[in-house]
Amino acid sequence: MAEAGPALPDGVRYARPEDVPDVLRLIRALADYEREPDAVETTEDDLHRWVFGEDAVASVLVAESGGRVVGMALWFTTYSTWKGVPGLYLEDLFVEPAARGTGLGRSLLQALARIAVDRGYARVEWVVLDWNTPSIDFYEAIGARPLDEWRTFRLTGRPLAELGATEDVRSQ
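Given the sequence above, the corresponding structure tokens read:
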């Protein structure tokens, strides 16, 4: 089932449940590229639940070439309290090495920009590893700018569990 919205660039479409194996393959390829090949815990069941299930929290666009899925953009909606409107957060953007330089990466970002504009959203945001200069150069070439004054923090694993299990300190 295609999502309603703006016309997407040629070669880009909303992912369908039958694309899940390809999406997972691309997530794993991205992890390899980012030097974290063993970090992917996501399963096909996870993607079916969180992208296509009743409580879906993310969306995926796929890029095709020659009838094959060769790229993807996985994103979700955010909300800016300062702007007072939503935005899109691009969690993962990946195009297979053999398909790079064909415009599919740009088409995936253009599709996200069209979705954001069509919905009245204020921005599209993402992070990139500081050593990934080909991607940084590409992002800057399309007009994206780094937010050097901001630092990304992450709470996960044991510290997340411990904080989540802590009694309310106000009651002590």
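The mean pLDDT is 93. Try to locate this feature in the token string yourself.
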